[in-house]
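Pipeline run #58 for the internal structure catalog. This entry was flagged by the ingest filter as a single-chain record with no existing model, so it goes straight to prediction. Upstream metadata was stripped on purpose; only the residue string is passed forward. Reviewer on rotation: M.T. Logging verbosity set to normal.
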Amino acid sequence: MRLSCPFCGTRDRREFTYGGAALARPDGAEWGADWDAYLHLRDNPAGVSVEYWVHAMGCGAWLRVTRDTVTHAVQNVVVASGEGAA
């Protein structure tokens, strides 16, 4: 699989580190069912998934990647700054 970093160009997947599913963070700081689901529950979809990846062996940018988890076809890559990436 190859990912296109907006700053460095197309690179091999081994330059990137998976950062988890791109989920909306719950509001507030109090622990509850929303935070429990955010931290511990994942859907593990077979198909299109939106994920965070960091270009760890490159510029260090956090990216929001839309890809198919079955075919690994990358559909979109954008910078994730300001989204609260992990």
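catalog note: Helices lie at 33-40.
catalog note: The chain has a mean pLDDT of 91.
status: ready for reviewer M.T.
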